[in-house]
Amino acid sequence: MDINLTLSADTIRMLAQKARAVSTALNDSFEDGHEGDVEFDSETLTDAHHHDGLAEEENDDMSDEELRELIEDLNVDEAAELVSIAWIGRGDFEAADFEQATQEARERAVGSTAKYLLGMPMLADYLEAGLDALEL
């Protein structure tokens, strides 16, 4: 299949890897379902709070923010191609319909492409399957 992409296949693979890292980080943070549990020592509990507020947890993993910025920095054509490849990987379109999928992605683009794509739980799989279907 002869397809000329504005984005390189390597760039799309890199975005898929980052999406997989983001997905893995989210899944690992709730391992065993106990990360949100709080244990209290009833002997040391008091009625008054003696602090200015809760300290925010710092997150060294900037993968989500980085991926969001990378997608937001794409131009209209690049973003449409990325969405159409995800759609092909998800099975919404056949590989032969790449041009039609890309045109439809351009027409449907209303809000944030990053928000739309990052809302797909299996984005990395869809991008990789789309590239495979397009033989890229």
Mean pLDDT, all residues: 80
For the CA atoms, what is the radius of gyration? 20 Å
**What's the helical proportion of residues?**
40-55%
Q: What is the helix tally?
A: 6
Distance between the termini: 9 Å
Region (Disordered): 30-65
Pfam family, one: DUF3775
InterPro entries: DUF3775
Protein name: DUF3775 domain-containing protein
Keywords, separated by commas or semicolons:
136 residues, mainly alpha, 6 helices, 0% strand, globular, DUF3775, DUF3775 domain-containing protein
Provide a quick synopsis of the model.
Residues 30-65 are annotated as: Disordered. The protein has 136 residues and is mostly helical.
Helix and strand layout, with pairings?
Layout: H1 9-28, H2 63-72, H3 76-90, H4 98-108, H5 113-118, H6 123-133
Helix pairs in contact: 1-2, 1-6, 3-4, 3-6
How would you sum up this structure, described in words?
The chain is mostly helical and 136 residues long. The protein has one domain. 54% of the residues lie in helices and 0% in strands. It is built from 6 helices and no strands. Helix 1 runs antiparallel to helix 6 and helix 3 packs across helix 4. The longest helix is centred in the N-terminal third of the chain and has 20 residues. The radius of gyration is 20 Å and the shape is globular. About 20% of the residues have low confidence.
